Amino acid sequence: xxxxxxxxxxxxxxxxxxxxxxxxxxxxxxxxxxxxxxxxxxxxxxxxxxxxxxxxxxxxxxxxxxxxxxxxxxxxxxxxxxxxxxxxxxxxxxxxxxxxxxxxxxxxxxxxxxxxxxxxxxxxxx
Length: 126
Fold this sequence. Notes:
single chain
């Protein structure tokens, strides 16, 4: 969808071309991207042209996704249903339940599928 809003990646190009003005040496930049419309190769040239160094691409592991969902649910202002239960259990128990439920619980499967399409591009200004 971003491609339709950022035709030709113009927004990304302008960001990488100008961000160095706001950074100290050694500063890191992490952008969240979506693998359904891009990959890191789309951005490495923009990063380098902007005077930054491409460091690496980070793809979330299953544990990262489980933790992100847990943080998300704990931040919701809901006090009923599954969110009420999850808000009151320790992360270790949630993680175990998540991994067990991942095999059978359709919302867990959909959430993992949704979150696994995102990746992070780490670049550095030096």
